[in-house]
Design brief:
- The chain is mostly helical.
- 67% of the residues lie in helices and 0% in strands.
- It contains six helices and no strands.
- Helix 1 packs antiparallel against helix 6 and helix 2 packs across helix 6.
- The longest helix has 37 residues.
- The chain is rod-shaped, with a radius of gyration of 26 Å.
- The relative contact order is 0.13.
- The N terminus is likely disordered.
- It comes from Monodon monoceros (Narwhal).
């Protein structure tokens, strides 16, 4: 289904709540290879995902991020991913609203100037 304008951007942002984003992050985390997880943990400086299951605790134990050497506890990667995705969605929502309002402006301009007569045309001509 294709949608355009204000309604699409508003509905898209409202549909992506925290629970849905948590499910998507959790599902994608367990599909990744161990190498990809290690790279993400090092680049975001975090360990584990949400620490909800024993698999998460095992993942936290094998973490190679720098934060683990500085302190005994690190921030969970899931929390950092949620914060990062929330910022990205806010930016995308602003861009979507910008284009929605330019669409409305274009529609208004088209309606306004569509039926104007050409001043150079011969008034006695047909059409």
């Amino acid at each position: 289904m294709v949608c355009g304008g204000f309604a699409c951007s508003k509905n898209a942002l409202c549909a992506l709540n925290v629970v849905y984003m948590t499910d998507v992050i959790n599902a994608s985390w367990w599909v990744m290879s161990n190498k990809t997880r290690d790279e993400l943990e090092r680049s975001f400086d975090c360990c584990g995902l949400f620490n909800l299951t024993t698999l998460d605790q095992q993942d936290y134990a094998f973490c190679t991020a720098i934060c683990k050497s500085r302190s005994p506890t690190c921030q969970m990667c899931g929390e950092k991913f949620l914060k990062h995705s929330d910022e990205a969605l806010k930016i995308l929502g602003g861009v979507g609203l910008f284009f929605s309002f330019t669409e409305i402006l274009g529609l208004w301009l088209a309606m306004r100037f569509r039926n104007q007569k050409d001043p150079r045309a011969n008034p006695s001509a047909f059409l």
